[in-house]
Amino acid sequence: MPGTGRADGPLVSRDDQDKLSRRMHHAVTDFVENPRRAVEEAEGTFEEIVSGLTEALAERRRVLRAGWREQDTEAQTEELRVALQHYRDISEQLLKI
Question: For the chain, which ranges sit under pLDDT 50?
Answer without folding.
Answer: none
